[in-house]
């Protein structure tokens, strides 16, 4: 069974839109774990438009499952991760003005930089995952950086699946098979939903973890957070 890590960025977005502390981010993090999620993910950005850097600190005593912090490894982000020491850091090449993640790393072009960052995290006992497109060269490049895992950027799969094109999963299968051959752990995320997660899980070998936020929170508006978390867990079996 692949683990479900719930990305709670959208909870922070809703909180920030009104000010105050409703909804309570820490309570939601505690609740999704109580409902069965095996991890909590956050993705702080420099402008703190959703998750704030202080949220990352405040979540440390709350997250007793896997704590995953995603982001672009600028110096402020690196320092935050080293301070909070999550289970996993997922490196994402976000531009400052990106609405959401929209590309994986060029692990060949940025090999030296990623090696340096990875070593700093790993010296502090933090597992490193690198966000990549389903491109075999980028998967091989991730291994060369010293990362323990990759996270496949699944937007293209979700788009094609929504159009009825199940063959859109083929590059992901190939990337997953290569990751297994190379000894890389495999995560996935972006636009995965109740509609497509079962098909994705059934076809991707060695899938260890999915990180889901936007769709899960949107689905929970209709179905309830406890119910939705358990619907994902059933599909991931």
UniProtKB/TrEMBL annotation:
Its EC number is 2.6.99.2. It catalyses: 3-amino-2-oxopropyl phosphate + 1-deoxy-D-xylulose 5-phosphate = pyridoxine 5'-phosphate + phosphate + 2 H2O + H(+). One of its GO terms (molecular function) is pyridoxine 5'-phosphate synthase activity. The active site is at residues 43, 70, 190. 1-deoxy-D-xylulose 5-phosphate binds at residues 45, 50, 100. It is found in: Cytoplasm. HAMAP family: PdxJ. This is Pyridoxine 5'-phosphate synthase. It comes from Flavobacterium zepuense. The lineage of its organism: Bacteria, Pseudomonadati, Bacteroidota, Flavobacteriia, Flavobacteriales.
